[in-house]
Amino acid sequence: MVIYKTSEELQSALEHAADAKEFCLLLCKETEHLLNNDPVYVERISKDIERLSEAYIGDMTDRAEVIKEAMLVRGGALYRMGRYEEAIGISNQGLEIATLLSDSKGQSLAMNTLGAAAIAQGDYETALVNHTGSLTLRKQIGERALIAISLMNIGNVYFALGDVAQALDYFMQSLTIREQLGDEHGIGVSLSNIFGVYGMMGDVDQ
Fold it and tell me: Which pLDDT band holds residue 203 (cuts at 50, 70, 90)?
């Protein structure tokens, strides 16, 4: 993917793009893959996309779709940077737009970030509401990899609450799906969580 070092570079590329909307959506998708490695860059680029879309995308619905995607990615970046209040604010805005656009996947992603930020702040009730809502939407969509993530996230909330039985149930559900999908990385994460539960229970030989 192309790395835009400055806002000016991105603006120049957008000016020469054949389709501004598709350019921005593709850039959002590409930068999403950098969330864990370079959230600072992702936050800057997604913020630039939000701003520039106002000038380069005329259709209101197309513009809303681009701004929504940029906000969802930006919320994830802010969360990874530890800027939880900002992550919650921008993710809520993204959620509102996703709801208006009837974008269930976008709604689930926003709720996922809201849940993660709530856990980081120790607000487990809000975290559970958001992760449960995200799971419901992902079941409707039918994307099993995303369902496994939501199950794991709910398990993390229960683990933080000390409800090891509930945590183990959700971790096992997540593991089952990941084994069926052949997701080796996901399997490793689920197993690590399960071992953590057994460790808390003092039964590490399970």
Answer: low
